TrEMBL record:
Lineage, opening ranks: Bacteria, Bacillati, Actinomycetota, Actinomycetes, Micromonosporales
Any Pfam family hit: BNR
This protein's name: WD40/YVTN/BNR-like repeat-containing protein
InterPro entries: BNR_rpt, WD40/YVTN_repeat-like_dom_sf, Xyloglucanase_GH74
Gene3D superfamilies xrefs: YVTN repeat-like/Quinoprotein amine dehydrogenase
């Protein structure tokens, strides 16, 4: 089983590949050196998966590069493929998320989320993009706040069976969803707590860190909040807590199994003042019953104190069966499990700080 792992860091993009379980990972030299890669994407729909990388150059500004040969070569347009149109009185700071369109919809659709919080849509496979004005012009937008990492749409989740339904999440602002292909958007945060606001259950304003969709039960979603882990069984209309059994309800990533329902992983951190792994133990937590119970997974992970932070997009699964699970820390180490978290091995060490990961079975 060959797997490609995209590793976005603060100083470039690294590609790791392994052709057989148990083989050592082969890690490339950096692509786009000295640029921050805040988002990577893999569109598995073409015959050869298309790779997307959000390049954040301090000199040239943000852009998007595309590869159709698994990173052997890249196309980067002369003009920025994602840009705010005239009259919006803002400019793109960086791209935070890519998502292929619904499996039931147009195979050329790719979505992108940006900072400041905006949604862009491509209808040519991620080459060019247009602003989704209906969300940009939403009456709530001027009241969306800025999380510690920036004001950005970091999660885009099209419904696999219905291309009219798309969910996005941002920090801070919360969850928004459309059921009419993006013509209108509704805040969908019922049950998500915003402890830092006078009204702790507001219509919007929550600091959502990440949302993952259950691939076997696509109306089921999992959410990691700024304090709080939640599940929705109605496509994000309402949310209930599933934090019991975790050592902390704070963290950044949450990912779901690529094929099996009710299975998800996250990486808890302690509260705002420290943001370390609880008791400084490097442990991933898995649930196989949609968050009713949790089990720590640490076989093969460092036993010494672990001081790194795993960011919202620095954890992912691949598309294999059994599923591969991956995470990386700000310390520059990346770990992989080929058996759904039962055991772990190191992919790479001494990389720049890990910002994002995506993996695909080839």
């Amino acid at each position: 089983m060959s797997v490609l792992l995209m590793i976005g860091t603060g100083k470039g993009l690294f590609l790791a590949r392994r052709d057989e379980v148990g083989q050592a990972w082969q890690v490339s030299v950096p692509h786009f050196p000295m640029t921050a890669i805040y988002a990577v994407g893999i569109d598995p729909r073409p015959a050869q998966p298309r790779l997307l990388a959000a390049i954040d150059s301090s000199h040239f500004g943000p852009s998007v590069a595309v590869s159709d040969d698994l990173g052997a070569s890249w196309r980067e347009p002369e003009e920025a493929p994602i840009a705010f149109p005239a009259g919006t009185d803002t400019s793109l700071r960086r791209v935070w998320a890519f998502a292929p369109g619904s499996a039931a919809g147009d195979p050329s659709v790719v979505w992108a989320g940006t900072e400041p919080s905006a949604l862009f849509k491509s209808v040519d496979g991620g080459i060019t993009y247009e602003l989704v004005r209906s969300l940009w012009e939403h009456p709530h937008r001027t009241q969306w706040g800025e999380g510690f990492g920036g004001q950005a749409i970091h999660t885009i989740s099209p419904h696999p069976a219905d291309p009219e339904r798309v969910l996005v999440a941002m920090s801070t602002g919360g969850v928004y969803r459309t059921t009419d292909g993006g013509q209108t958007w509704t805040a969908s945060n019922t049950g998500i707590k915003a402890y830092f606001l006078p009204d702790q259950f507001p219509e919007f304003g929550q600091c959502v860190h990440k949302v993952a969709r259950d691939h076997a039960n696509p109306d089921r979603l999992y959410l990691q909040n700024h304090h709080g882990v939640y599940r929705s069984d109605d496509d994000g209309v309402t949310w209930t807590s599933i934090a019991d059994g975790l050592p902390s309800d704070f963290g950044f990533p949450v990912v779901a199994h690529p094929t099996r329902g009710d299975t998800l992983w996250n990486f808890p951190l302690t509260a705002d003042g420290s943001r370390f792994a609880p008791d400084f133990k490097c442990q991933v937590y898995r649930s196989t019953d949609a968050g009713k119970s949790w089990q720590a997974q640490s076989a093969g992970l460092p036993v010494e104190p672990y001081y790194s932070t795993v960011l919202r997009d620095a954890m992912c699964t691949d598309t294999a069966d059994p599923a591969g699970v991956y995470f990386g820390g700000r310390s520059g180490e990346v770990y992989a499990s080929a058996d759904e978290g039962e055991s772990w091995g190191r992919v790479a060490t001494q990389l720049p700080g890990i910002l994002c990961l995506r993996a695909v079975e080839l």
